[in-house]
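In the previous chapter we treated chains in isolation. Here, by contrast, the input contains two separate entities that must be folded as one system, with a combined length of 406 residues.
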Amino acid sequence: MSTLPVMRSLIALAALTLSAPALAHAVLKQSVPANGAVLDLAPAHIELTFNEKVEKLFSTVTLKDAAGKGVPTAKAAVDPAKPAVLRLPLPALGRGKYVAHWTAVGHDGHRLGGDITFSVR
Amino acid sequence: MDSATLLLVAATALLNAGFAWLTGSLLARVWLAESWPQLPQRLRVPDGAAALTCLLGGAGVLLAAAARMGDTGLADAVSMWWPVAAGTDFGRATMLALGSVMAVAVCLRLRAPAGWSAAGLLAFALARASVSHGAEGGLLAPGFAVEVTHLLLVAVWLGAVALAAWTILPAGQGEGGAGGRYLDRLSRTATIALAGIVASGVWNSWQRLGAPQDLWSHPYGMLLSLKLALFTLAALLGGWNRVAGFPRARSGAKDAAMRVLRIESVALLAALVAAAALASQQPPG
């Protein structure tokens, strides 16, 4: 058996996967409420949408009030139907400023994190 | 660099080095099937060591990934090893890559048709590339195919050079001209691989660097520059061997060529470590 056909097969098989345009690096695309939002009504949940699936085992959101004290919530969960969406159900929030800290692990195993700030008036 | 990242870099390099050796072993078996039929027997121990290296590397990659994903120390990550291996995209891809490379080792041991081993090597590269920076645009994006090609060609180059330096040339004398035959094939194949590595490397750099100055001002770019320098060194050594070392080796004076091949294999191994460090970091672009 000659080598070049083996190498050509490996490279040709790899090249078969060529197509479609590239997207951006894994990032948070959207949050509800939006970062910096001032709301008349307290939100029922925080919903974070990433540009790719995030790992449910390592993706979380925690909430703190203006004094930096943790707000007890249920556990954040990845939407089974939309694995790029991470949602934190909220209890009834009073007036004030809140900071949601999120961490998410993308498909490549990299851990991402950030804060979303919003206020209820 | 924290301990989890250090382990990730070392384990990734081990995994890819074992993969490269098995790639070189397949090439050597194909190239020397007629002129050195006893070669598979001689490769049994080093191939087994390469498979073990892959196993240790893969296990280390998963442990380091568990620590990084959970933002914990390595000791605390032990309990998360299996959940990460079975329950995350990165873990499943790593397990698939490990399974593929173990299947290659078994195929080589049983002297199965070369196509089976080639398919296993391709499966390894596809699995590894699927959780690399190259797959950020999805599995149908050009970046993924470029990454797969890059992984395969680096393995072809390093594997073929390492086999020549550490097994074929030391044992090849008096084996019916097998050493000379291997060097002919190596010379041609490494040239093709180098061209492909340069092309895919330029593509990857263009995709991941924000601007040329990132090459010397951003940590990711500096590591990329180091990897480039190591590949350039290896290419220069390969070039010297092509014009001076191999012709002498064919006429019986193989020591100089063998020494240069050994330095080239170490330079390529160092480039593999730099590549593993690159994979553990976020690119600037």
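The CA atoms of residues 51 and 105 of chain B lie 6 Å apart. Chain B has a mean pLDDT of 90. Compare these points with the single-chain example from earlier in the chapter.
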